[in-house]
Each structure stands twice: as structure tokens, then as C-alpha cells.
Design brief:
single chain; about 250 residues; alpha+beta; Ribosomal Protein L22, Chain A; five-stranded mixed beta sheet; three-stranded antiparallel beta sheet; about 30% helix; globular
């Protein structure tokens, strides 16, 4: 299913939909802790998205490691509590794989690279006003820029800014434990860049690539790669048709 190995300096993003495999097929390769977490979702759609992401992560990692998906060691321990909902890590001797998972609506994404820590985020563009959420998540400059747009353009603009922030925070492992209004990113019509944040990692070490999740969605991958060039490739599951997304260095 996922037949190709990562090339040096490559980041690969696999896309799937929650209904493309049966629950039995998805569950067959998961660990007991993953199945326990899946069972706690109240909504079937949320359970399906989690199962698909966990299955896709294991399938992608298994190809890289030369093992069966059920033999991949995935650690989702949370650093703040005992719940099994933290950033996923692949535990393997002799091979360093950095991974990230995201899902929204009927899109599920798994990103993987050997270059450095990364975060992927996909979001459905909202169909209702985002002004209240924007006031909590955006900096004053970002908020003024969004409010200058016509109301109907604000939905996608906000989503582009939000995904950049969440992807960057997923790359560090902080997630939304850091409030997104503490980060400043480039405008929605500009190439994605991190301008400032409260962490010691220089903003210029975070590099982004816009992804192609399809109409009605916005997605981006963020990598902590410093000056190292990274090539991003997207793959659709099933069908496995690669789409080169590319990744360019941030402007100084």
C-alpha cells in the first residue's frame, strides 16, 4: 500500500479518508492502548478519523522500518498527564523517524521525515463566522489584517493562519499548551513564515510547505530543519499518486 522509502532530505505526507478501510482492518494493527483511546470517542466520525490516522501512521512507518504495521512501536505518552494523547513518536533502533498526524472532516494526514521534528495540520474551512475565535487566537496585527477582508474571505484567511500556528506548535510538541496568540505568522496571502513566538528556537529554523488537501480544506506542514533543504511529497491513499509540494527556505 505504501511502497516507497523516504529519500534523504525528504518529507512525505500521506492522505487518506476515514471511510477507505473497514473498522476491522484499521483496528487489526493497532495496540491495545490505541484501541482503548479509540473506544473513548463518543462520535463515530471522530473514532473513524483516529483509527485511520493510527493505521496510516503504522503503515507508513512499517515500510520505512521493514516490519509489520502491528510491530511498529508508537509512543503517544503525554508529558503533562497519564492520558495517551500526546505527540506520537516512533521508537525504533537504528532509524530516526519524525512523525505527525492530523485529521479534520474527511481528511486524514500523516507526515514523516528523517530530517527533524515536524507538525502537520489540516482544517476544514469553517462555514460560520470566525470572529470570536480569531480574537482569541490571533495577534493584534493578524486580527486587524483579517478584519480588513470582506466577511466571506475571512473564513479561509483565518484557517490559513491557524494551521500555520498549530503545525509549528505540533512540531515542538507543545501543541495548544502555548496559546496561538503568542505566535505571529505571515499573512494568509503570503508564503507561510513564522515571524515570532515565545520559544528559544529561532523562528527562521521553522520552515513550512503548503499542502493540497482539496477544496474546502487548508493544510500545511512545519519542520524544524534550520538551513537544511527539505523536499515535500504528498501521496494519496489508495492509489499512491505522489504530488510534489516542495519546500523553500524562509526569507531572511
Amino acid at each position: 500500500m505504501i511502497a516507497s522509502l523516504l529519500a534523504p532530505g525528504e518529507c512525505r505526507v500521506w492522505w487518506a479518508t476515514p471511510g477507505h478501510r473497514t473498522v476491522e482492518t484499521l483496528s487489526a494493527v493497532l495496540s491495545e492502548r490505541e484501541l482503548e483511546r479509540a473506544a473513548k470517542f463518543r462520535r463515530e466520525a471522530d473514532r473513524r478519523r483516529f483509527l485511520t490516522g493510527a493505521w496510516l501512521l503504522r503503515s507508513a512507518a512499517a515500510t520505512q522500518l521493514g516490519v509489520r504495521p502491528e510491530d511498529v512501536v508508537v509512543d503517544r505518552s503525554c508529558t503533562d498527564c497519564t492520558r495517551y494523547h500526546g505527540k506520537p513518536y516512533i521508537r525504533a533502533s537504528g532509524r530516526r523517524l519524525h512523525v505527525s498526524v492530523s485529521h479534520s472532516g474527511d481528511r486524514v494526514a500523516v507526515a514523516m521525515t528523517g530530517v527533524g521534528a515536524l507538525g502537520v495540520d489540516v482544517e476544514a474551512v469553517p462555514q460560520t463566522p470566525v470572529d470570536d475565535l480569531a480574537r482569541c487566537a490571533l495577534t493584534p496585527d493578524e486580527l486587524r489584517a483579517m478584519e480588513a477582508l470582506p466577511p466571506l474571505e475571512r473564513y479561509e484567511a483565518f484557517t490559513r493562519v491557524w494551521t500555520r500556528k498549530e503545525a509549528a506548535l505540533k512540531a515542538t510538541g507543545h501543541g495548544l499548551r502555548i496559546s496561538p496568540d503568542k505566535l505571529e505568522v505571515s499573512g494568509p496571502e503570503e508564503a507561510p513564515r513564522l515571524l515570532s513566538w515565545p520559544l528559544e528556537i529561532p523562528p527562521g529554523d521553522i520552515r513550512f510547505a503548503d499542502l493540497d488537501p482539496g477544496d474546502g480544506y487548508v493544510a500545511v506542514v512545519a519542520l524544524i530543519s534550520g538551513a537544511q533543504p527539505v523536499h515535500v511529497v504528498e501521496c494519496r491513499v489508495p492509489g499512491h499518486r505522489p504530488v510534489a509540494a516542495g519546500l523553500v527556505p524562509q526569507a531572511a
